[in-house]
Amino acid sequence: MKKSAISIGIIGFGTVGTGVARILLEKQGELRRRLGFPLILAKIADIDVKRKRAIKLPGGILINDAKSLLNNPDIDIVVELIGGIHPAKELVLEAIEKGKHIITANKALLATEGTDIFNAAGEHNVEIGFEASVAGGIPIIKIVREALIANNIQSVYGIINGTSNYILTKMTGEGVEFSDALKGAQALGYAEADPTFDIEGIDSAHKLAILASLSFGVPFSFKKIFTEGITHITPLDINFASELGYKIKLLAVAKQSANEVELRIHPTMLPKGHLISSVDGVFNAVYVEGDAIGPALYYGRGAGETPTASAVLSDIVDIARDIKSGSVGRIRGIGMPGRSDVKIKKMENVLSRYYFRFSAIDKPGVLSRISGILGAHNISIKSVIQKGRKREKAVPLVMMTHEAKEKDVVCALKKIDRLPVVSGKTMFIRVEGEEDN
Length: 437
Hints:
It is a single chain. By secondary structure, this protein is of the alpha/beta class. It has 3 domains: 6-138 and 305-325, NAD(P)-binding Rossmann-like Domain (Rossmann fold, 3-Layer(aba) Sandwich), CATH 3.40.50; 140-301, Dihydrodipicolinate Reductase, domain 2; 349-431, Alpha-Beta Plaits (2-Layer Sandwich). Helix content is 36%, strand content 25%. The strands form 2 sheets. Strands 7, 8, 9, 10, 11, 12, 13, 14, 15, 16, 17 and 18 form a 12-stranded mixed sheet that branches. The chain has a 6-stranded parallel sheet with strand order 3-2-1-4-5-6, sandwiched between helices. Helix 4 links the parallel strand 4 and strand 5 (101-104). Helix 13 runs antiparallel to helix 14 (406-417).
């Protein structure tokens, strides 16, 4: 017998949970007109039921017992918004076992435990919605999963962490040091008190694991993603990048070639004319190249109460429609892991172009010694910049290279950094985008 209404339970009543509840309550009539049936907010479970929120709930909805919510036979869809891996995984799996459909914004959970969750969903014939797990209000999951289904996706580039993008934008625009830009981000609420996941690239890696799984069919591969943060980026490097025609972004990169996929997160120099270079502040963007569509850029807010809540509601509506039409399972397997022939390329074998900044003693013969080591490791120099002259003192020496292999670069720089004419550790940044010949 078809249900007259679809009931929703929310676990976690923080920022996003509040946004979801607000939309379900305030737009109840509008959603009913658009869908042809009502969506009912049945229960919200949270450990803190006394804290004041900027929303008034009908009596009896807010409870402090998630188990009670899961045991409620009237609830069709469970929205998990508590974050973290445990107890989120256990709650999600229990909900699945009880036949409830799942929606989550939890990228860490999916990136690390996604295989178990999707296997359980298949066994119990329930849907998993996770649009809000990547890039907030940008519907990139639906785009890759459904709109681009006719494409063989060749590459995905993403600015998918607003905190890091804000910090780099601040450093670029105002010339401030990383530490000052971080403090500003924290003061505005863009960065957490402990910003490690954002500034070290971990949050971006969680999201890339999900995008790569959808785009290339590889298993969730968070632990295999090369991850490097932005803490070592300086205004000096940003200025040199600008002079060379580039901007520095924390970039998520996924590329497929033959039966290998590159998965990496790191600061990247992009040409100023590249579509994704213009994405500044807390905004996110995902640039996708497919064999049918060509290049496409998807842009919007990557976090916050309303953009993320909007993504959650998109999943609620999709799953509610599937329940009502008897088509549960319609999209669960689309684009999800299913290829055993694709391998994750080791970072040491990745080919890239590079920016080097040496702190070199200003004396004759230094450039030839450095270039000699680079040449011996198959690294070809494209251009050189040296600013200022300070005889017998260290000055910045900047080089741009043609394409080289990562392991050759690492080996060459170790040898160069041991030279007595080089002071300190060499800065290097990978370069993406078309090369000017």
